[in-house]
Design goal:
heterodimer; A: about 130 residues; alpha+beta; OB fold (Dihydrolipoamide Acetyltransferase, E2P); six-stranded antiparallel β-sheet; three-stranded antiparallel β-sheet; 3 helices; B: about 450 residues; alpha/beta; Aspartate Aminotransferase, domain 1; Aspartate Aminotransferase, domain 2; 2 domains; seven-stranded mixed β-sheet; 13 helices
Chain lengths: ~130, ~450
């Protein structure tokens, strides 16, 4: 089965969210990068931008498709992974680590609890939804 | 022949009607309320035989003042540069002539290759990293540049120098209305950008500063100074340039431009009473993802052979829908092909020569025309192939008088700028002869007496 770390939260759009103190780190899942194939371009917001849960915050493009990136939670972007524009393949190599995308200061930390657990996400993926 | 210009025969029409179960063509129109329909035949004269029709159309066309029979000093965005004869012969080949923007692009390697060469030459001329396959005309190129600057910088104002072609400004205003981008004007009291005013207007909200050089009045702008003003505020510099001039003038990219746009008509596309034209669009590599229009790239196939493809299509609306960088997903392929053949035919030296001749003849013309009593240069700033004259009589009257002598003396500026009601914009290309220029000066002398 796919690589779905137990300590993360997930969206139905295949993003993950990880609590990091009072901040939340965001990326796309192993399953997502596998479905996309070789990622060739990532467009991220600027530091300081506001993102809204379930709304697009960026774009990921692979040799097969181009997709919006959806924010798991609302808040302000504190950091973006500035390595990704030069090395988009990092998303494929290490989606949960060096392939992270944005670090958000949540405006409503409660939103995190509404996301899927690892188990729920695994079931969601297993049902063939994507 | 009953239907000289309709492709199907009466028998075929009956067959089609039978297939859809209609007794007559009339039957197809019953749903249209009678009062909305014309109850009598159109008041058209009877059809002409082909030979008579051609004669009739020729006669109508002969009442035009065209650049073949008139000495054309008219410019303002469209220029009477020579169109070398290989252009028409090559574009008339069926493989090129019938092609619209290829929808199955990679099957049209020849078309893609010419576009790739066009892009390469435009990028070199403008001093930019990348050029697109072209868009409609100079005005739409500038409007797209404004949108691109807006989306790149996420800022909401575009500052335009007064010297930008006023027709382009209107197109920019139309494009910017929807997204709510605000346009601001920098005056040009001496014919060129008022730099102090520009410094005040360009600020944190400015997405781009736009200058045209040579500008609408013919004056050369200080592009490097404009770049400094724009960049100091974190804005982009958009330069409107005529690529024909760039055989002689410095590439705007080397002077600090981030986006270079312009009208490419002078590159082998006939004036044609104002269109079709060629929208040139080039930018720095860092901005390529925000570029409008189609881009052709070179690559290799499985066997390592060189081939051409449409590239970065995820910018475009057939993939990105509402989030596309632009709603233009076509190019003016045939005009871009004309420009490609033009640039390849003339080569580096040829293009340089066109620029040198145009500017030398323009300066000779300015010298002769300003010898006429009461006629002077409107602006003291250096110009290239076009300049603004101040006349002692109404420019519109002068144009009418000179047209009788088969001279198109230029463009009266009154309709573009009310403060320039006494001014005439004069363009001189390499095509104008000393005799034509001298005849113009003599005729002008009489007309303003």
């Amino acid at each position: 089965m796919a690589n779905v770390p137990a300590d993360l939260k997930y969206t139905r759009e295949h993003e993950w969210a990880k609590r990091d103190g009072d901040r939340v780190r965001v990326g796309i899942t192993h399953f997502a990068q596998e479905q996309l194939g070789d990622v060739v371009f990532v467009e991220l917001p600027k530091v300081g931008a506001k993102v809204t849960a379930h709304q697009a915050f960026g774009v990921v493009e692979s040799v097969k498709a181009v997709s919006d990136l959806f924010a798991p939670i609302s808040g302000e972007v504190l950091e973006v992974n500035s390595e990704l524009p030069q090395k988009p393949e990092t998303v494929n190599k290490d989606p949960y680590g060096k392939g992270w995308m944005i670090l958000v200061k949540p405006s409503n930390a409660g939103e995190l609890d509404q996301l899927l657990s690892a188990k729920q996400y695994e079931e969601f993926v297993a049902q063939g939804a994507h | 022949m009953a239907n000289r210009y309709i492709a199907n025969t009466p028998a075929e029409q009956r067959e089609m009607l039978h297939t859809v179960g209609a007794a007559s063509v009339e039957d197809l129109l019953v749903k249209i309320p009678p009062k909305a329909r014309l109850s009598r035949p159109l008041a058209l004269p009877p059809a002409l035989a082909e030979a008579d029709l051609v004669r009739h159309l020729r006669q109508l066309a002969s009442s035009n003042a065209d650049a073949d029979r008139f000495a054309c000093f008219q410019g303002g965005g469209s220029y009477d540069h020579y169109v070398p004869s290989p252009i028409n012969h090559l574009i008339s080949r069926g493989e090129f002539f019938t092609a619209y923007t290829p929808y199955q692009p990679e099957a049209s390697q020849g078309t893609l290759r010419t576009i790739y060469e066009y892009q390469t030459m435009i990028a070199e001329l403008t001093g930019m990293d990348v050029a697109n396959a072209s868009i409609y005309d100079g005005a739409s190129s500038l409007a797209e540049a404004a949108l691109m600057a807006h989306s790149t910088t996420e800022r909401t104002e575009i500052v335009l120098a007064r010297g930008v072609n006023p027709l382009y400004r209107r197109v920019v205003a139309t494009y910017c209305d929807g997204p709510g981008i605000k346009l601001r004007d920098v005056p040009a009291p001496d014919g060129v950008l008022d730099e102090d005013a520009a410094k005040k207007l360009v600020g944190k909200k400015t997405a781009a500063l736009v200058v045209q050089s040579p500008n609408f009045y013919g004056c050369l702008e200080d592009i490097a100074a404009a770049a400094e003003i724009a960049h100091a505020a974190g804005a982009l510099l958009v330069v409107v340039a005529d690529p024909v001039n760039l055989g002689v003038l410095e590439a705007p990219g080397r002077l600090g431009a981030d986006i270079v746009v312009g009208e490419g008509q002078g590159l082998g596309v006939p004036v044609s009473f104002g269109g079709p034209n060629l929208g040139v669009f080039a930018a720095k590599n860092a901005l390529v993802r925000r570029m409008p229009g189609r881009l052709v790239g070179a690559t290799v196939d499985l066997d390592g052979a060189r081939g051409f493809v449409l590239t970065l299509q995820t910018r475009e609306q057939h993939i990105r829908r509402a989030k596309a960088t632009s709603n233009i997903c076509t190019n003016v392929a045939l005009c871009a092909l004309m420009a490609t053949i033009y640039m390849a035919t003339l080569g580096k030296q040829g293009l340089q020569r066109v620029g040198e001749l145009s500017t030398a003849k323009a300066h000779y013309a300015a010298e002769q025309l300003t010898k006429v009593p009461g006629v002077s240069l409107r602006f003291a700033t250096p110009f290239f192939k076009e300049f603004t004259l101040r006349l002692p009589k109404s420019p519109t009257t002068v144009v009418a008088k000179l047209a009788r002598k088969r001279i198109l003396p230029g463009l009266p500026l009154k309709t573009y700028d009310r403060t320039l009601a006494d001014s005439l914009l004069v363009a001189v290309t390499e095509q104008r002869t000393r005799e034509e220029i001298d005849a113009y000066a003599a005729a002008l002398g009489e007309a303003v007496k």
